[in-house]
Amino acid sequence: MPGVGRIDPPRHEGTVAVDEQRRLGFAEFGVEDGPLVLWFHGTPGARRQVAPVGREAATALGLRLVCVERPGVGASTPHRHRRIVDFAGDAAVVADHLGHERFAVVGLSGGGPYALACAATMPDRVAAVGVLGGVAPSTGTDRSATGVVNLARTLRRTLEIGRKPIGVAMQGAVAIVPAAHAAYLAYTRVAPPGDRVVLREPGFEAMFLDDLVTALRSGFGAIADDAALFGRHWGFHLDEVVAPVRWWHGDADNIVPLPDAVAAAERLPDVELHVRPGESHLGGFAVSDEVLEAMATYLRRLP
Question: Residue 1: inside a domain, yes or no?
């Protein structure tokens, strides 16, 4: 893309067969023989959505960092799960394919619920959970979501019925790719102050746009699927997540307000909430190294 710097590709990319009809795309960073951390991208996002600081930290810490795409994203086969918890079975297949019985999980923004789902359904396999600006539940007894995320509950039926036309309508965004650099610079001027710092980090633009193009290749239907699932009951309760959860959240988050994260954290049995002063929703990218350091600590304790 004109004007955009270069970023090294992942160490390895591929797909995993989760059944006879479906495959999931993934990208590996760090080292091949290290403890496994499964990374779940945001919404929108794809398998390359790991900030440069996170990629460097994975190598320095000796971790095998694998970003897993959800159905319909990038190289993954389109599929509509009924609940967020259903994706945990897919993640288990990926971990089996990679040869790891125990592992940690990290979810960025829209990936947060999927990370928590893995911990709730695989207590004997998930050693720890990292959440970066994670989406909060919008239904059930755990409900705490407000603002933009809460709209998912209100618009759930519209999103489910209109998935295909929404995807087609948004496909026109592909046309901005040649002008992506200019659009990126324009956004940095109007973004929340906390996000501007992240957007101007070295290598961040190259990573962000590279991942966006990867996600665009399969259209936008998966974004509607994610949003619809946020508006449904997730299929588990937060108090079922017995693994230690370390949650980072900006106090100026304009997508998932801090009170949402505080309310969700109060329902987790073992949680540390790290509030980031002045950071908005993209702040999670800036602490990718910090969350991986925390995950490495728990993984090193495993037999």
Answer: no
